[in-house]
Please model this.
Amino acid sequence: MAVLILADHDNENLNDQTAKSVTAAKAMGGDIHILCAGDGCNGVAQQAAKLDGVSKVLCASDPAYGHDLAEPLADLIVKLSGDYEHLVAGATTTGKNVMPRVAALLDSNMISDISAVESADTFERPIYAGNAMATVQSGDAKKVITVRGASFDATGDGGSAAVEEIDGAGNPGLSEWVEDKVVESERPELTSAKIVVSGGRGVGSKENFELIEKVADKLGAAIGASRAAVDSGYAPNDYQVGQTGKVVAPDLYVAVGISGAIQHLAGMKDSKVIVAINKDEEAPIFQVADYGLVADLFDAVPKLTDQV
Amino acid sequence: MKVLVPVKRVIDYNVKVRVKSDSTGVDLANVKMSMNPFDEIAVEQAIRLKEAGQVEEIVAVSIGVEKNQETLRTALAMGADRAILVKAVDNVENDVEPLAVAKILKAIVDEEKPELVLLGKQAIDNDANATGQMLSAMLGWSQATFASKLDIADGAATVTREVDGGLQVIKVQMPAIVTVDLRLNEPRYASLPNIMKAKKKPMETKTPEDYGVDASPRLTVVKVSEPPERKAGVLVGSVEELVEKLKTEAGVI
Ligand SMILES: Cc1cc2nc3c(=O)[nH]c(=O)nc-3n(C[C@H](O)[C@H](O)[C@H](O)COP(=O)(O)OP(=O)(O)OC[C@H]3O[C@@H](n4cnc5c(N)ncnc54)[C@H](O)[C@@H]3O)c2cc1C
Model:
């Protein structure tokens, strides 16, 4: 049997979540195929073909797949599912949107956000905001899975899989794309950055968030935020780190003016080194920080920017 | 238009969960339980649509144990009109899987014929983020997940979705499934008079069998364990010391 991985991409670049899903798929066993569904995504298919361990890339280029709409994408995966025991995607907003739909159409339960593969049918996944780890065994013929990127290393290049152009599966026409509101940034992508600097409510305003931007840029870091900072409009929604935002595990995570609520810790506590800057020495973030600095961030962060 | 809002009873988000020493699950005996926070946002949105004159009736559904009644009463006190309790398990520690929940909801939708089902994007206990999408697939309806803005007009819903790259706006045909994200609204607290009134609102009790659904689990929980613990770190006295440690000790900058 084989594994089919839905590639995560923007029609130009393959997101490294896909390479991480390949690492997870290697532990499931069988051939690994990647599905690139998009609009003019042939270049992405070529990138996927280079991933180590991948034996075939299916490329479905069709306007129906241009914006990751769930209904046509799920129909396509279901149409292809006959040859596969595992249907896999990264636990990105696309994977989370599409894969449960696939699971329901195949009468399988969803196996969301796995953090380890024990065997072809047994997986570990965090529950309760990562405060418990469940090992679950699936009895379903087809296992539909999303993979937590922060828990797997990206597979390297070195493959040379064949790319096969395939037809789409039609478009039920239930949804249409209107627009994307995306802020282009030169900074590294939050979920794959080596360093992340995050700001919380303590930063105080959108203007003050510049302090975080400056130190992040000096470090070549991505920027994150707590829910409170996003809710208050200091930072855009795609910066949110946590149980219900992005899960990151960089080499260095710097939490500035963040108290360390369990929902925030859920998204960053697997970082290699955690630094916390907070003026309240009782803040729970210090319980997970490797290096804690009890200080006013308005004093400490500019100094940090100067010294790194 | 009628709206269906499924609500889950989960461990309160402020409670620190404890893994049971026999590794079979999480200890839910005598801990505070509340409505899943995302479901509160879904209920709130339904009420706002009703207040705006776009919705006539709000039906809340909860699937789980007998005590899920409490969660339904909360939904009724906030402003839902009636409730359906589906008693699917006897023990609160037996989570009903998203697939089974979606099948039960599908049967309820077939009976109730709502035009919109508003669900939380994920339950904070199993963190599965799946039920809405599954229900949508079973019904063959459109789906809009992770909504932070919702406008309904002319038989379609325009939804702003929170996605990894920022925001995506899509237009979905009604009937539709919408799963809600944190920033859609801020849910209201039920007032005391409304809590009293809610006690008189109708609540039906059903079982999965009433809907012809087999709710038995597909996944076997082999074990539940504690996550790896982080070792306590050190406090540094100054920015200088911090930078020094990051460079020499941790070697990360
Ligand atoms: C269903 C649900 C899902 C959630 N999901 C997430 C999620 O994904 N991500 C997330 O982050 N949260 C999430 N939350 C919210 C979470 O519970 C907390 O409310 C949030 O993380 C708090 O953000 P904060 O630490 O920035 O704010 P606060 O808790 O208000 O902390 C601010 C900190 O800043 C410090 N501070 C203030 N001024 C200064 C200063 N001048 N210098 C230094 N320090 C200062 C304070 O001492 C304090 O510790 C969720 C909550 C719910 C209910």
